[in-house]
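U., I forgot to send this yesterday:
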Amino acid sequence: MDLRSELDKAGLFQNLELLAQQVVEGFISGIHKSPFHGFSAEFAEHKIYNKGESTKHIDWKLFAKTDKLYTKRYEEETNLRCHMILDNSASMYYPEIAAPTIDNLNKIGFGVLAIAAIMNILKRQRDAVGLSVFSDTYSFYSSEKGSERHHHMLLSKLSEISLDTKPAKQTDIYAYLHLIAEKIKRRSLIFLFTDMFQNTTDDDRIFEALRHLKYNKHEVVLFHLLDVDKELHFDFGNSPKRFLDVETGEHIDLFSDTVKTGYEKAIKTYFDTLKLKCAQYKIKYVEVDVRGDFSKVLNTFMVERQNFL
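Result:
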């Protein structure tokens, strides 16, 4: 049975846990192509034995199966607190997709599945994960926990978001990032999934809110979700189009080629400033094309997790 086709037939996000597992297993199967040669399905419980370490905790049964030396890795050694932040405003539902597939997602779909995939890895490692969701309100908050019940509760919330057909129109990124920063008291690894589009706050205030997330010695990664062809390069062809602002309802009719050069210049200036501010605040900036796959997000997670512990 082709798991991908079966999931697509059933409706992509009807079984988010299974879909997230598929993404992670695909990532693991290709891990030999990445820097993480020691990563395996057992990574939550074992680590490779290094010469000179105590042999007390070597797993001899695993050695008999694999002919490789691993030591048992206990829960306190893998203790990580991770908080996911998801922008759920209307612009995140671009582009509008009637029947999403794993190879054809909008920003919110990509963000939901990426978070679920990282949660799958965290669950294997018995690490604690929390979730914040904001749009025109700070609509959901759950602190970091590692229980099975908590994991399924977060998956249920993410599934609900992925099936939403009437997202909030506007958001105030500035206000809600400050609120979230105040809630996360203990040092955590924070992942923010957003397109960084807003219409109510000047850029400096947003950058200040990003810096607030760094308080309490948190490590912060900004996954900047974009449909690169459309939102970065304004690639809409040369026929007349109506462009609708999904957050304000305003529209304009024009030939995209007439504004393409000016648009690309303005958006590049904004993104370059954003990258510079992230570098200044020691926030890792990762541009993610939602038309791509999840390996960029998962590779970044693995690197940042190793650096955090």
